[in-house]
Amino acid sequence: MSTSTQVMELFNIFSKTYGKEDAQVIVKDIEEIIDSRKQDLATKGDVFEVKKEIKEVELKLTKEIEAVKLEVEKVRSNLIKWVIGLMIAQTSITVTVVVALLK
User: pTM for the whole thing?
Assistant: First the structure.
């Protein structure tokens, strides 16, 4: 059922009860309310655009997360190297001190 057919039906219903002049005012008010509410409704195109934007953001976030994971792995490897190096240095110092004390 088209909008104009629905408007005519509303007009006919209201004109029987309220008269033609009042029915015109009522139907006009209803049309204005409907038109103002239509602006707030999302179309299928709007929904499609939002889904597209969400996918783009997901892709960007996925790439960024992968970059962060690589950076964390580099830092982790570097940290392990430093910890092992410091353990060797500390062990060497401890052995040197113990040998010096035993002499």
Answer: 0.50
Do you know the residue count of the chain?
A: 103
Q: Phi/psi at 2 (nearest 5 deg)?
A: -80, 165
**pLDDT tens, per residue, the chain with 103 residues:** 457 788 788 888 888 888 888 888 888 888 888 878 777 777 888 899 999 999 999 999 999 999 999 999 999 999 999 999 999 999 999 999 999 999 8
Rounded CA-CA distance 79/73 in Å is 10
Q: Any idea which residue has 């204005």 for tokens?
A: 32
Residues 6+ positions from 15 with CB-CB distance below 8 Å = 23
What does the H/E/C string look like for the chain? CCHHHHHHHHHHHHHHHHCHHHHHHHHHHHHHHHHHHHCCCCCHHHHHHHHHHHHHHHHHHHHHHHHHHHHHHHHHHHHHHHHHHHHHHHHHHHHHHHHHHHC
